[in-house]
Amino acid sequence: MLAGFFVIWASAALADKRVALVIGNTSYENSAALPNARNDARAMADALAELGFAVTLAEDLTLSAMNVALRDFARASYGVQDALVFFAGHGMEFGGENWLLPVDAQLQTDLDVSFETISLSAILQAVGGARGLKLVILDACRDNPFLNTMGRRDTTRSLGRGLARVEPADGTLVSFAARAGQVASDGDGQNSPFTTALLARMAQPGLELGLLFREVRDAVFESTGRRQEPFTYGSLPARAIYLNPPQEQPSIAIPAASGPSDACAMALSVWSAIADSNSRSALQGFVDSYGAQCPALGALSADRLKALASPTLAITEPQHCESLAFTWRMLGPQADIARFLEHLPQDCISLRNSIAHHACASLASPDAASPVELDGRDTTQALAICQLALDQTPDDAQSAAYLGRILSARGADEDAVRWYRVAAAGGHPIGLNNLGVAYAEGAGVEIDQTEAFRLYRLAAEAGLDVAMRNVGRAYLDGAGVAPDAQEAAVWLQRATERSDIDATATLGWMYLNGYGVAQDLDEAYRLTRVAADRGSSTGMTNLGYMYEQGEGVRQDHDEALNWYRRAAAQGDIDAIANLGWMYLVGRGTEIDLPEALRLISMAAADGNLSAMNNLGYMHENGLGVPQDEAQAFFWFKRAADSGHARAMVSAGFSYQKGRGVEQDLAAARDYYAKAAEVGNATAMYNLAVLYANGTGVEQDFAQAFDWYVRSAAAGDEDAMTMAAIYLEEGRSVERDAERAARYYIDAILAGDNWFLENARERDAAVIQAVQRVLRDLGENPGPADGTWGQRSEAALLRYANAQRTKQQ
User: Fold this and answer.
1) Are strands 97-100 and 82-94 parallel, antiparallel or unpaired?
2) What is the mean pLDDT of residues 606-617?
3) Secondary-structure breakdown of the chain: helix, strand, coil percentages, each rounded to the nearest 5
4) Backbone Cα Rg of the chain
5) In the chain, what is the straight-line distance between the N-terminal and C-terminal CA atoms, in Å?
6) What's the pTM?
7) CA gap 135, 189 in Å, rounded
8) Which one of 113, 244, 514, 661 has the fewest CB atoms closer than 10 angstroms to its CB?
């Protein structure tokens, strides 16, 4: 692949003062393409050229080409006034550092990161030689495409989603499309949401750079439904900085700025002279003259005009607080919040309150659907700031919700609940939902599923997507409300429409099983694939199951193994258990008993019931461990007593045969009955055998036949054959050759060939019935004379093979 370089020259007057390198990596060779990255880069290059930058546009750069481009730009930008680098493409965080991905990155293991990607520090070095503005813009927080496939060798270094926060020095500003730890969207339109917002504001004359990025933050936050929050790191000098300097405007009653370069400096000088004035004409003249060049001061003047216009809005704070408010607005997200508040005069009460609440929201609301994921320093700062905000106004619902989230993340559950209650009382949806989670999990309060559901419902009705998912799960599990699969589907659909990926995965599972919705395998695959592709470990696990079992897709054990591995890499316990089973039986891979034991033991220790049952199976059969029936029974019973149906069957069989435990036929019957109640076909079959043989119960062929019929309906092929035999022989049931014939045929379709092996010994009436059924099904078994021969057998096999082909 050849990288594309294009130079877009600006006017000669500014070409030696402003330079930009714009990179758009779209066509990744070893991961998903990013169609909008190229679009973003081209649009950004054009916009910067219009603003007087000499722009180098580069597309689809390999590692070597990217290094060359940065080296050349570092040389070209040395000593210029302004230097800017814009990168659109894949980025990742590894070991607390940020790395940008060239199009030829492979990243088979984490050891490759330093050798196959470009560090952010190299980008910062490339702009470091400029005398004025040093700006790096990264629309590169899109999800790391290698997160689930890259082998881990160095487990001491973190590998996360999105990018990590940075602390650039020397007046350098770094703008991320999403705050540290978040993932940015590539977008459904021509450009990403971040680049779209930037392009809409860059050309606006007089929009100060700090304010520009704050407006971009608000626009993206709104357009993405509060899921993506751009963030800017670093600091700027005290002077105003613009991408597009303000246009000179005529003065009205007060002196105007002498030129665009010192517009805010002149405005600040004028403002100092009129800040304490009650002259409406002077204040209005200031707004008209300087509102566009210096929006922060213009807003202060406009606010003062409003206060003078209404006696009920009298200014209650000292005038010096207004100047400090201006300083705060100019600093924006680059401010050291705690230090600023520490030096803020005590009489600036309203300003202190406003800053504290704004900062609390900024520090503690990266993703309302998950715990606060901040490093220790940021968690400490967020805790202090949110506590300060609530010291000022203890009933503020938003800050209370955010403080609760911080406390939950720090393990202070009871304190978190206290603030969640404040937030819930104020109707804040995060407070309502998270208080519900506390009741559901018993975190800081006694478990109360009914109260949890009530709170989830209130938060869901307020529009919170994660609460909608929680309502759906509650209906699905019967937690705090009567089980209602159809109602569960309604709420999960609402959450899915708001892009909640876990709800999407669960809804896909419901379509797969026809639970609460009409079974739709195509829709099941679509939803599950969407959830998996967007990073849901549940979606990945469910997709692996679909490929393993051939449900909704063609059976593919290699693909199943791939998805289980990706989900397991995220710590999904179900995936780890399923992956262990694949290694145990050799599906999609060679049998590897040590790896199977490691994975299954890990999942069992974490409470996965299937893993417990499988660990019992390994001990029972001496697979990867010494054979130990007592240890096998221990795991079977532990899983069975927690509700695992197959483990109930295994525990029942251990009791029936006295394996690993003293024989107890009554206990065996009870475990089989419990599993049968939840639809386990094998348990129903075993109950039929107990009644047929009078083992632990009084012999009862009618009961045996009833359980064989139930087991057959649940899919057990042996039960189908036994039901046919009872109907053929009239054992406790009236003879019915036609019905017996259909059971025999169903058993063959399900994989039991007992009838084929014993057809010549069957009753002639049943053979005739089989021949008639085959003729009705479109096959030609020869005459329906009750004699079984090669022609009849060939017809039956043709029909069975045709049905199996259709199922595939």
Assistant:
1) antiparallel
2) 94
3) 60, 10, 35
4) 35
5) 40
6) 0.56
7) 26
8) 514
